[in-house]
Model the fold of this input.
Amino acid sequence: MDNQKLYGALKTIQEACDEQVSKHNSCRYCPLANNDGQCRITPKHEYAPLNWYIVEPENAVKLLQ
Done:
C-alpha cells in the first residue's frame, strides 16, 4: 500500500472531523457520524479523528499512533 495515499486519507478524515467540531461544536452533523452524532469511524472508547496523532510517512513506519 502507498503510505502517502493512506496518510492523505487519514488527514482528510481528520480535517472533516475538525471542520464539523469548529462549525457546530459537536459531531451531530458530521457525515462520518450516526444519527445520534456518534462517530462511526472509531469506537466510543477510542479517540475521535480530531484527536488522532498522524505521522508523515517518511518519518515513521506507523502512520497512526
